Amino acid sequence: MSTGMNVGAGKVGQPNTLHLSPEVQQKLLELQQKGIDINNFILESLQKREQEIAERKEEISKQILKREEEKFVKNFMKNSMENSAESSAWKSNERFPTKHIPISARKILHEEFGKKCSIKNCQKPSVQIHHIQRFFASQSHDPRYLAPLCKEHHELAHSADLAYHDIRRKTKQL
Ligand SMILES: [Zn+2]
Ligand SMILES: [Zn+2]
After folding, report:
1. What are phi and psi of 120, to 5 degrees?
2. N or C: which end of the chain has fewer CB within 10 A?
3. How large is the C-alpha radius of gyration of the chain?
């Protein structure tokens, strides 16, 4: 898929080694000694985490969409009163219900991806929250369609987007 040159080969620490603290090791050992399958236990915990994040993301997404819609309607009304010519609610920045990604969306993304790029196996720090393709249609900060990306993957995402959407050139929102 990519050149594979630097991807995943982080130089900081040893990214492919687990660092379990003595306390965690001790606790897992105790579970194991009780005859509990700790691999299964950890797997279940990880699945639970994923599920929980997905559910909260759904919830946050609903709230954000509701707020964006309210704001959009408000702007639309305001603009059509001020400027009956060609309703500017559909023009440029007016389409953005909010210019900034809501903190709730940022938080859940941080929880899901940590500080790293959201591309699988990419170890680089995320530098930008990217609006994935759907953004062109929805203009929304729905966290389900946001992806923290490293510099390289962000550039890649935009060069791919550009191929499909000339529209990008007009805005520098992202
Ligand atoms: Zn972007
Ligand atoms: Zn990346």
Report:
1. -55, 135
2. N
3. 21
Indicate the number of domains in the chain.
Answer: 1
Burial of 21 (0-12, 13-18, 19+ CB in 10 A): exposed
Ligand nearest to the CA of 165: 1
93 is in which domain, residue-wise?
A: 22-170
Q: How far, in Å, from the CA of 41 to the mean position of ligand 1? A: 37
- Per the domain annotation, does 43 fall within a domain? yes
Cα 118 to ligand 2 centre (Å) = 7
- Classify residue 64: in a domain, yes or no: yes
Note the pLDDT of residue 135: 60
Low-confidence ranges of the chain (pLDDT < 50): 1-11, 87-95, 167-169, 171-174
> Which residues on neighbouring strands pair with residue 128, listed in sequence order?
149
**Ligand 2 midpoint to CA 3 (Å):** 13
pLDDT per residue over 94-119, tens digit each? 445 556 899 999 999 999 999 999 99
Q: Which ligand is nearest to the CA of 120?
A: 2
Q: Does 63 reside within a domain? A: yes
Decide if 118 is inside a domain: yes
Q: Which residues surround ligand 2, an ion (CB under 5 A)?
A: 117, 119, 122, 124, 150, 153
Q: Across the chain, what does the average pLDDT equal?
A: 81
**Residue 133 confidence (pLDDT):** 66
